[in-house]
């Protein structure tokens, strides 16, 4: 079987996947982040074209109509999607792509590219701890926190459809577990 080209990290919002994705990209030069397009507002700590391509709803709908997205979802009232151009860029640059997407996006990418996709689900130790993490990062309003917690409960039900499921309790342990999987599934594969 071919070496996997896509590492797909999925977890409920606040589950820790962005931190882990950033760590892997800084450590492994052959990895690159799949920059999604979104219509959500940019947060103060984010950079357009690096964290996301922040675009208008009109432009997003145009991308859907032009068949420019591998998959897309409407989440918390905003569109999020993976541009096909990200996959082409990774291929040209000979990079392994790391995706930070919701569960449906992950399963959809796997459906399109079953031989290329490595799916890892990260779950918080409990909904109470997820709530604490969401509150601590101070990027969401009260209403948004409630929406994210409700969605998390639904997303957790998809965990057993992922080849790997890691409970993100202590970040360092989680990183080391994700790395072990990647080393055995990608780095050590010929
Ligand atoms: P946030 O607004 O916290 O950055 O992201 C909200 C949710 O959207 C997260 O679960 C994130 O993984 C997911 N997401 C980000 N980009 C994409 C994408 O391109 N496709 C899908 N399906 N979900 C995405």
Task: Tell me what you see in this structure.
- This protein has a five-stranded parallel β-sheet, with helices on both faces. It has a four-stranded mixed β-sheet with strand order 4-3-6-5.
- It is globular and about 50 Å long.
- Helices cover about 45% and strands about 20% of the residues.
- The chain is built from seven helices and nine strands.
- A hairpin with a 2-residue loop joins strand 5 (about 70-75) and strand 6.
- It has helices spanning about 15-25, 55-65, 85-95, 105-110, 125-135, 140-155, 170-185, and strands at about 5-10, 30-35, 35-40, 55, 70-75, 80-85, 95-100, 115-125, 165.
- Helix 5 runs antiparallel to helix 6 (about 140-155).
- The chain is of the alpha/beta class and about 190 residues long.
- Bound molecules: guanosine-5'-monophosphate.
Short synopsis of the structure:
The protein has 190 residues and is α/β, with parallel strands linked by helices. Helix content is 44%, strand content 22%.
- Quaternary state reads single chain
Strand content: 15-25%
Helical coverage, percent range: 40-55%
Q: Could you give the distance between the termini?
A: 10 Å
Major sheet description: 5 strands, parallel
Uncertain runs? none
Across the major sheet, the strand order is: 2-7-1-8-9
- Our count of helices gives 7
Q: What is the N-to-C order of secondary-structure elements (H for helix, E for strand)? A: EHEEEHEEHEHEHHEH
